Amino acid sequence: MQYNRTGKSGLKLPVISLGLWHNFGGLDNFENQRAMCRRAFDLGITHFDLANNYGPPPGSAETNFGKILASDFAAHRDELIISSKAGYHMWDGPYGEWGSRKYMIASLNQSLKRLGLDYVDIFYSHRFDPETPLEETMGALDFAVRSGKALYAGISNYPAKATKEAAKILKAMGTPCLIHQPRFNMLQQEPLKEGVLKACDDNGIGVICFSPLAQGLLTDRYLNGIPEGSRATVAHFLKPGQITEEVVKRSAALNEIAKGRGQKLSQMALAWVLSHKEVTSALIGASRVSQIEDAVNAIDKLDFTKAELTKINKLIA
Ligand SMILES: NC(=O)c1ccc[n+]([C@@H]2O[C@H](COP(=O)([O-])OP(=O)(O)OC[C@H]3O[C@@H](n4cnc5c(N)ncnc54)[C@H](OP(=O)(O)O)[C@@H]3O)[C@@H](O)[C@H]2O)c1
């Protein structure tokens, strides 16, 4: 495993991190979850990413990971970076989502209980709340760190302008913003085009990109149809309607370039994300152990030739 420094902080993260958004909920096979976490750790993946609402049902991914922590990783807590987030809908009423201090701290307390932990390593504001003063949301992150319930503060899905403001507020509070978690992949390049990566770089903030494989579109998963059990058939964040002929044709063309590099498409997609100097880690999802192994093997070839990038850019620009 290769470990990168997170922005200008003292913390290093593995270039491949594992997220528990899908396939770790109450309806998923627990032994498979356990096997994936164990294999990931054995391969050097020290960072596991969660959020209050991961499941389904919401919260169950934290509960399951808490069980795995207790059964398999109890002796390894200090070797792990565990994150959680609050921002999306978690419970009914006016205090169950967005960015108020009331919601953020209540949610963090609930997450710690489900995980069976005294602290998480990174606590994120999961989305920018246009209606709550940013000072209040950042104040909640600062409080989480000062109270010892989190070691570092992070933001996710924040646009560039809010990122710069959040960085300034947190810096003034003495709790620097460690990391930003945007969606970034070959097919979804908004953080690059809209200045989020630059805002992070300018402010010493690390970047961990979620959905680097575009939920499976940047793999060979859908090249020959939509397999039973794939995310497009079981989850509503990727719909079969998104697997259009045009999408498959582009993935097939990218797959040919990856083959020329001696890689799988998924590995080339991870290398592409990691080729951006602002990016600390690629945050993958997985439904089986072999996908985690594929991802870690991407590290064998992270560099691109100019000719490869020209061919790739023609397909994804
Ligand atoms: N901050 C946020 O708002 C936010 C939002 C979304 C995600 N996240 C974080 O980012 C993490 C990753 O997101 P993601 O799951 O969308 O990431 P992703 O890596 O883009 O997609 C993962 C999916 O791709 C497929 N896949 C992975 N490796 C493969 C391989 N080698 N061959 C074929 N298919 C492969 C699997 O789909 P199948 O299930 O079909 O096998 C897997 O579940 C989440 O767990 C979460 O921690 C954060």
Query: Kindly state the mean pLDDT as a whole number?
Result: 97
- Highest CATH level, the class: Alpha Beta
Overall 3D form: globular
Structural class: alpha/beta
Number of DSSP E strands: 10
CATH architecture level-2 label? Alpha-Beta Barrel
Distance between the termini: 30 Å
Q: Gyration radius, to the nearest Å?
A: 19 Å
Largest sheet: 8 strands, parallel, barrel
Largest sheet strand order: 3-4-5-6-7-8-9-10
Helical content, roughly?
A: 40-55%
Number of helices: 12
**Total discrete domains:** 1
- Name the CATH superfamily assignment: NADP-dependent oxidoreductase domain
Order of helices and strands: EEEHEHEHEHEHEHHEHHHEHH
CATH topology: TIM Barrel
Topology:
Elements: E1 3-5, E2 12-14, E3 16-19, H1 30-42, E4 47-49, H2 60-72, E5 81-86, H3 101-115, E6 120-125, H4 134-146, E7 150-156, H5 160-173, E8 177-181, H6 190-193, H7 196-202, E9 206-210, H8 231-234, H9 245-260, H10 265-274, E10 279-284, H11 289-297, H12 306-316
Parallel strand pairs: 3-4, 3-10, 4-5, 5-6, 6-7, 7-8, 8-9, 9-10
Antiparallel strand pairs: 1-2
Bound molecules: NADP nicotinamide-adenine-dinucleotide phosphate.
Question: Could you describe the 3D structure shown?
Answer:
This protein is of the alpha/beta class and 317 residues long. The protein has a single domain, classed as NADP-dependent oxidoreductase domain (TIM Barrel), CATH 3.20.20. The chain has 12 helices and 10 strands. The chain has an 8-stranded parallel beta barrel, surrounded by 7 helices. It has a two-stranded antiparallel ribbon with strand order 1-2. Helix 1 packs across helix 2, helix 2 (60-72) crosses helix 3 (101-115) and helix 5 (160-173) packs parallel to helix 7. It is globular and about 50 Å long. The two termini are 30 Å apart. The model has no long low-confidence stretch (mean pLDDT 97). The structure holds NADP nicotinamide-adenine-dinucleotide phosphate.
